[in-house]
Amino acid sequence: METNIYKNKDDVYGRARVEDNEELKAYYSKLAELDTGALWTVANEIEPWEPISNSVPMLWKYDELRDLVLESARLVTPGQAGRRVVYLINKQRAHVKAACGWLYAGIQVTQPGESTPAHRHKAAALRFIMEGDKGYTIVNGNKISLGVNDFVITPNSTWHEHGVDAEGKTCIWMDGLDIPLVNALEANDYAVYDDEDGQEELVPMNYSPMSYSGSGLIPVDREWDNPYSPLFKYSWESTYNALKNAAQVTDGTPYDGVIMQYSNPLTGGHVMQTMGAAMQLLKPGKRTKAHKHTGSFIYQCAKGHGYTIIDGKRYDWKERDTFCVPSWAWHEHVNLSETEDAFLFNFNDLPTITKLGLYQEKAYLENDGHQNIS
Amino acid sequence: METNIYKNKDDVYGRARVEDNEELKAYYSKLAELDTGALWTVANEIEPWEPISNSVPMLWKYDELRDLVLESARLVTPGQAGRRVVYLINKQRAHVKAACGWLYAGIQVTQPGESTPAHRHKAAALRFIMEGDKGYTIVNGNKISLGVNDFVITPNSTWHEHGVDAEGKTCIWMDGLDIPLVNALEANDYAVYDDEDGQEELVPMNYSPMSYSGSGLIPVDREWDNPYSPLFKYSWESTYNALKNAAQVTDGTPYDGVIMQYSNPLTGGHVMQTMGAAMQLLKPGKRTKAHKHTGSFIYQCAKGHGYTIIDGKRYDWKERDTFCVPSWAWHEHVNLSETEDAFLFNFNDLPTITKLGLYQEKAYLENDGHQNIS
Amino acid sequence: METNIYKNKDDVYGRARVEDNEELKAYYSKLAELDTGALWTVANEIEPWEPISNSVPMLWKYDELRDLVLESARLVTPGQAGRRVVYLINKQRAHVKAACGWLYAGIQVTQPGESTPAHRHKAAALRFIMEGDKGYTIVNGNKISLGVNDFVITPNSTWHEHGVDAEGKTCIWMDGLDIPLVNALEANDYAVYDDEDGQEELVPMNYSPMSYSGSGLIPVDREWDNPYSPLFKYSWESTYNALKNAAQVTDGTPYDGVIMQYSNPLTGGHVMQTMGAAMQLLKPGKRTKAHKHTGSFIYQCAKGHGYTIIDGKRYDWKERDTFCVPSWAWHEHVNLSETEDAFLFNFNDLPTITKLGLYQEKAYLENDGHQNIS
Amino acid sequence: METNIYKNKDDVYGRARVEDNEELKAYYSKLAELDTGALWTVANEIEPWEPISNSVPMLWKYDELRDLVLESARLVTPGQAGRRVVYLINKQRAHVKAACGWLYAGIQVTQPGESTPAHRHKAAALRFIMEGDKGYTIVNGNKISLGVNDFVITPNSTWHEHGVDAEGKTCIWMDGLDIPLVNALEANDYAVYDDEDGQEELVPMNYSPMSYSGSGLIPVDREWDNPYSPLFKYSWESTYNALKNAAQVTDGTPYDGVIMQYSNPLTGGHVMQTMGAAMQLLKPGKRTKAHKHTGSFIYQCAKGHGYTIIDGKRYDWKERDTFCVPSWAWHEHVNLSETEDAFLFNFNDLPTITKLGLYQEKAYLENDGHQNIS
């Protein structure tokens, strides 16, 4: 049955190959009056041979952004802004406020003693911590401490707010949300917490990560039937150690090196219903092979430095730089250090893509799996 | 914890309430140069209080369309067109070729002796048969006969083609596809079957529906690990009988009367990963209550006549008319006959919406659940 | 890794091969005093090379049983007996009251006007109707009419009772329960309904089967989160038609002909958590191939006549005869009619066996898959 | 519908209340000749009001057993014995070689330089390490190092063998297997590895635990579709830390204190299909409340000392002592130390019980949840 040949040309049998003439154009007008159209006039456009992305690869250098981010703290308060964030705009996705595909990313700064309003919305959110000390998030009454390179989730419809203890240091983190997706799907909503002082803490500090700190060990003292992970924070310490341990016994995948997916310990699946995330370790001198796949990915370098080649173009990154790989773009990673590991964090829409049956990938076959840099 | 009050006003604490000034505008320019922006300048827009749809309700009367559909058969051949279809265009979704939300709908005519090219694509497709006799679909080597009001699926990546026996009658059916969604998610692909004579039949005619004709009875002579229903055709006879039986013991739901979801007998879930469908029976004189919910729905009247009130506007339909209900639009149905049942078919994106955790609904509370018609 | 060779002899390396002597026997005594033992003295016994059943094949001829069953109705009332049933005893399972393995089977008679007490228990139950008219079961407030060759479930912990309308005919049916299994697992319980008049009917008669009468059509007007099928009765008419339809397009499996598993339309899985059931159609003259597998099976001929060869011995059956096939016994079926189909019903513990990862099967390879009859 | 009253007396309507007489006895004889019986003669026995266990609580003191275990090493070799194990016999389960219910437990000693034959079987196995150093297990080509209080699995049908490095120390561990259950279900099988030198190591040492060392972090470089955990060893260090962390933020359950279930990181479920295990921390002076539930449990004290009251009788334990709690027995735990935590390991048949819908529990309501000691 599988006799598939990508002909890839729109003049073959099976594609739309109608030459318009006056009679047809008159026909098209009649169709338009009834809010209809002739499919064959658009078919080849809406049935591409391979996935097509409307996003372009982007690189946001932290050196360039940091001052502007800090300036936002001088210009507005969290109370005025709602969320005082500098958000990242993909050159071709400005109209939907996306950094890549239907994913939103932004960089938020919170200063010691500040706190943000508590709210909830259908859009899911995650946080990757870049700088600071004694920052915290409160999600559904759970207060969680934040440290650099920690990964935190505030899922669809959970109440959440952030702040930094007065004795802490200014915190900066990257927010990732599926706002563009949820708006596209016409399903977003929003509510402000009705107490301006924020949420009451319902459990001890760090109740969630302290309850789920052991791999394969589940506390059986509570019920959990939410469609997201009960582990709200994945600490850098835990993630770093897990990757270093794995790196002793495996080289991971050819395309990503040693890579761990943040997962829901109760299901083994992604942390949330629409967005997932991962951390990968590139060993010293590692040069991965190229591949492409559906799904949109936004990366941040957690540690080290290197570059990624995306569709034949080289993008250099170092700690705290953010870049994106659009759907179906060839990509491979290189760790420029010969002595230190490099770590790349990413968040993505893989849960959406895979649940909808839309994931596929392809290996770069030429040149031993390595693109030529144009 | 659930102390949610919809304040619904953008001047409250928790919303973006920044008044721009020269200093801020200069700041915004600097942000723009780095492909970034200030979230608070767009936050209220991208974080709506309630779901917002970009589609409008539409009604396509078959009396008006039928001649134009038949005319397409005079103007082009299936071989020229690829798929000779008149597709339905939502006034606000023309740019994505959608009838509603991210769902595509079209009306296809196939004449006796004609056949269409075989192809496959990541987009999923379904068919609701409107007219004709001895039409057929071949999906992955399974030939299926088509009758009026039958519901047929050709899922993501299955090879499929259509035709009408030479001794048959001209067939007209409604196609439903998630093309706009799959393109938006940058995941579509396409292939033509490499034999222009079409697929070889691998099993006897109607192998699928004949194997799954009994409710709760599963043939155990085959493996099935595909993410879609093994039952490719849901016949009108079977559906009609199931609804008539249920109508004897239940009134169904207040909002839809007696309603059955077409489902995968191996999972109880929707027929495919992205799109679902249902058939509902409105008893004589039935007037359902109004509600709204997320998800996009495209309806066709299979039998009878009546009207649907959508966001306060009345849309009259009779057999073969097609209309759509956008996400979050109030809707209620009325069967105008006092003696005959009315039947409404619909296809929708509920699998997508529910799997992504985005389904919600709300009952219309005033006036005993009935909207006033404007 | 898979270098498995069945050596099948207990004197090989890897088996227990200790020759006892006085020193060891003294040692064994010391172990016994502490309620311990030396594993190697029992290892070969408790680690068999292949599955071993403690049951034997049995055949209960209805001609012989029927009078005795009817006599029970003369001797005791349902109120005296609790359940007035003649239960089937496997010659090697009398101590656990099982017909085969850990499955109980019995034949119950209920006369017009009679009704049985309502009760519930952790053990699951099912019924296969053999004779009669206007019999009924009430399960959790759902009254279900019973006809010959209907299959009915009253799952774990559901309230249930039975009866026959005064204008009906004496009903006889086969009960199947997992009582021996649930008692073995030390988990059974029991309660009598506190109203001796029985349950109140909460929904119209046949609410369940009338709501689920169409294959692949699910009513969406109710929630269902019970771990058993919402379809309480699988009618003979529906089952017969489903098998006849399938028989037109498939020959089924080599071992069973055209066979359908009764399933939960909401999951595609077995009807209940511990027991499943199936109906198979043997075409005229059909002679299936032999195989063996784990799981205990109790059969009843619903229609026609033929024989089954079990571990080389022939067991002739006709309509209403009951027989069992123990775990890991070779079996093949033969329809003795050259013109009529034969139908075999069976219930089994497949859900238990498969969920615990204990299912395996083996084809009979010699003689073209046919056993020699000893 | 839920009008359940435990009447608990066998003379009520709904129970079997037939007084035998000569006519009935003659009838019973006729039934017996046909391998049948009258249900009402056994019904009350096989339909207990509450779960009934055939096991009794047992306590095996390590002080008494240790020398006998070590003596086994003097008396036989692993090659002679197959598995040189002293197995624990429940006083009422000797006929099925069980320590409790259908669970087998044994204590195995392996000396430096020794190794056991490699084999596989349908029965699942687990190990809890009691003494020693540089012991190892090889499961399906994965070599795993063993330390005291580590928990290890060798699931259904995996090849496995054990040994101790020549430079190590004599290792003693507790084996737990579902042999009695799998034999009862007539589904066991066995094979010896065909190379007497044992398995080839397919991956680096400790590949499994090193790949899954971080909570909620899943390596995505491999496929895993086995019905058991990919994490073969749950180290004491990891388990101890997880419990100590949780103990800072929760008191756990009233019945067990701070308790963690060993789980499959890919599903959140039990480690294997039939057996599960858990480790609980009793804070200094902790006295849990009593409850009872279905399921058989075999405990071993990993650290500390205390006692458990089972059905009103006190069983004192200290490190390395083993005891069992049968199905439906009241039990509560006490940590006798006022300064040190106590840790109890247990393995059980909860996966079996819960998957079959047979789990239920009941709190001890009198005396503030504490049994009187008889």
Describe the fold and architecture:
Four copies of one chain form a homotetramer. With 374 residues, chain A is an alpha+beta fold. The first copy, chain A, contains eight helices and 23 strands. Chain A has two domains: 38 residues, no CATH class; 312 residues, Jelly Rolls (Sandwich), CATH 2.60.120. In chain A, the strands form five sheets. In chain A, strands 4, 5, 7, 8, 9, 10 and 13 form a seven-stranded antiparallel β-sheet that branches. The first copy, chain A, has a six-stranded antiparallel β-sheet with strand order 3-20-17-22-15-14. In chain A, a hairpin with a 2-residue loop joins strand 7 and strand 8. The radius of gyration of chain A is 23 Å and the shape is globular. At the A-B interface, strand 1, helix 1, strand 2, helix 2 and helix 3 of A face strand 1, helix 1, strand 2, helix 2 and helix 3 of B.
